[in-house]
Amino acid sequence: MPRASEFGRYQLKQFLLLLLAALTAGIHMLSLVTVAAVPPHRAIHNLRRQ
C-alpha cells in the first residue's frame, strides 16, 4: 500500500479548511485587542472647569 501514506487531495482540502478557520479566528482575536482598548482621554466639560 504505497499510496496509504501520501498527502492527497482530501488531506489538502482538509488542511486548507482548517487553515482558513485558524486564520480568521486569529484575526478576530487580534481585532478584539484593538477594538476593546480604551484610550486615555479627557471630557470637554472637565476641561472647562479647570
Structure description:
This protein has 50 residues and is mostly helical. It has helices at residues 9-36, 44-49. The protein contains 2 helices and no strands. The chain is rod-shaped. The N and C termini lie far apart (82 Å).
Blueprint of the fold:
Layout: H1 9-36, H2 44-49
- Find the structural class using helix and strand composition: mainly alpha
Order of helices and strands: HH
Mean pLDDT: 84
Number of helices: 2
- The portion of residues assigned to helices is 55-70%
Which word captures the global form?
rod-shaped
Strand content: under 5%
What is the CA-CA span between the terminal residues?
82 Å
* Main sheet characteristics: none
- Which residues form runs of ≥5 with pLDDT under 50? none
